[in-house]
Amino acid sequence: MSEVEYNPTELLICTAARMMPDKTTAFIGTGIPLLAAALAQRMHAPNLVPIFEFGGTGAILERIPIAVGEENTFHRAVAASGICDIVETAQRGFIEFGFLGGAQIDRYGNLNSTVIGDYARPKVRLPGSGGANDVGSHCWRTIIIMRHDRKRFVEKVDFITTPGYLDGPGGRERAGLPPNTGPYRVVTNLAVLGFHPESKEMMLLATQPGVTVEQVIAETGFRLLLAEKIEENPPPTKEELRILREEVDKERFYI
Amino acid sequence: MKILDSGSGKLIQPPDIDAFREWNRQKSKELIDKRMSEAEAVSRFVHDGDYIGTELYGTVRCPMSLVREIIRQGKKDLRLAGQGVMELDLLLAAHTVKEIDITYVGLEVYGVSNGLRREVESGRVETVVDWSNASIAWRFKAAAMGVPFIPVRSNLGTDTFKHSAAKVVECPFTGKPICLLPALILDVGLIHVHRADKYGNAQIEGISGFAAEMARASKRLIISAEEIIDEEEIRRHPNRTIIPYYLVDAVVHAPFGSHPGEMCYLYRRDEEKIREWVEAAKTEETAQAYFKKYIFDVPDHQAYLDLIGKEHLENLRYRAEVN
Fold first, then answer.
1. Which one of A3, A5, A10, A53 is the catalytic residue?
2. Residue A129 and residue B104: Cβ atoms within 8 Å?
3. Beta carbon pairs, A and B, within 8 Å
4. Rounded Cα distance, B123 and B195, in Å
5. Which residue in A has a C-alpha nearest to residue B56's C-alpha?
6. Per-residue model confidence (pLDDT) at position A254
7. Cβ-nearest to B207 among A82, A172, A177
8. Please, what is the average pLDDT of chain B?
9. Whole-number average pLDDT of chain A
């Protein structure tokens, strides 16, 4: 166990940050992915290139943007262009990682951020795609960050806003999406999950500190595949938390 | 070309690219002074029922002084391309909107749009068609190219596609499915920029969102600018002109024109005033009280700025050492 206390948001940020390798491109939205990118830049990935939807490429994340188009998304950046350039860059295959969230996810990593219930008479109208469908269509590997419970991890999402593996193996290619793309990891407060290389079904890879495999299964609304060896994800380190609290989000806007 | 699938959403503004060419042909190419007030620009160029668009996104470089004037003049039945943060939220809550092509409805860190919820539930907004962000920008790009559609690889395989007005066809070159987005030609575009000359040649600092595409997809274009500069300034750095004058119908001088949103390198967003709207937007009554205070009871943008207060505004400016 960790010697220091941390909250669920800090755990998600630290887990996601460790997945961002140095010297690569990541399509970043606001919120947790942004803080994870800022943390990664200060830890193991100083040359991580954050790319923001409305035109910022390669910002140095000294200050945390609140809005997706604001100045901090291109603070000391290498380029400031526009949304067509950025999404076309992803469409051409230049962007390795994309980060996504959502209100619902199914076993194939399909995501809903549009409506809960029927589209015509929704129980809850959610914000809609925004850039999510574009990120999930074009980035090579998407990492999804969500809270983990049966209301969110469902057998069937009410609306596919953003494509995961759609109806399973070959689904993306049949639909015309770029080959060899799709969901790579799902990071939750309970676990780190991946997708089976053949069946494309979600698979438990690691549990978060203090969480059991049974808990993860109980909070998942579909049959979850289990990796041969399920790891235990190490808790945030003192150093990660120090950087996160003292440098990345000093004002505690998110954490 | 074989059509494999068609989205079921309404095509709110079908593209007529030949009519667009004719329109563009008759637009004046003369260098004339187009400076005017928000009131004149909106009354001359925005009509009830028009299909309008705003740029950029969220609270960044939003043409808020123009949006407030649209509400002040009681425009109605507008159709719009929406990315609903501040500007769309205001237009919705003021009952000006009938149909929307939408990508995102919400207030980012401040949560859902109560304005949209009320307008859709009451039936005042009759049509909502969902798209992805890039899809809307690419639809402008198609119009800017002067072609009726643009092929893209977004939307494929999803309900986002099914409820849009896009089509999936078999690509005549690769045989693979590809999504076609219809061009989107605006009746009126509203763009707030850092500076422009009196003819409408405009410059933007930092990211340019989809300003270049939307300006070229607009039949009429209203530019508001933080600063009006001399034509010679423009001619010294022609590479900085993102919007050339012949696209522009009106140039409105609007310092702090994006308030309570932000303008990169000039001023930051006004959290206090944004929160005030977020709170006010929660009920019909408080939203209307907000409109009375900040729109109907002030005659113009300058009076709005006076109401916010000079000192309050000055505190939002980036200081020199930040830049």
1. A53
2. yes
3. 173
4. 40
5. A69
6. 81
7. A82
8. 94
9. 93
CB B183 within 8 A of CB B213: no
Return the domain boundaries, chain A: 8-248
Give chain B's domains with CATH numbers: 3-10+32-313 (3.40.1080.10)
3-state secondary structure chain B: CCEEEECCCCCCCCCCHHHHHHHHHHCCCCCCCCECCHHHHHHHHCCCCCEEEEECECCECCCHHHHHHHHHCCCCCEEEEEEECHHHHHHHHCCCEEEEEEEEECCHHHCCCHHHHHHHHCCCCCEEEECCHHHHHHHHHHHHHCCCEEEECCCCCCHHHHCCCCEEEECCCCCCEEEEEECCCEEEEEEEEEEECCCCCEECCCCCECHHHHHHCEEEEEEEEEEECCHHHHHHCHHHCCECHHHCCEEEECCCCCCCCEECCCECCCHHHHHHHHHHCCCHHHHHHHHHHHHHCCCCHHHHHHHHCHHHHHCCECCHHHC
Query: Considering only CB atoms, which chain B residues are within 8 Å of A175?
Result: 156-157, 177
Residues of B in contact with A138 (CB under 8 A): 153-154
Considering only residues 47 to 66 of chain B, which have any Cβ-Cβ distance to chain A shorter than 8 Å?
Answer: 56-61
Reported as a single tens digit per residue, the pLDDT across A8-65 is 999 999 999 999 999 999 999 878 888 999 999 999 999 999 999 999 999 999 888 7
Q: Residue A36, SS3? A: helix
- pTM, two decimal places: 0.95
Considering only alpha carbons, which residue of chain A is nearest residue B139?
A: A84
- Does the annotation mark A228 as catalytic? no
- Residues of chain A predicted below pLDDT 50: 1-2
CATH 3.40.50.300 is held by the domain A8-248: no
- pLDDT digit string, tens, across residues B257-273: 999 999 999 999 999 99
* Nearest-5° Cα angle at B17, B85 to B29: 85
ipTM for the predicted complex comes to 0.94
Provide the pLDDT for residue A2.
46
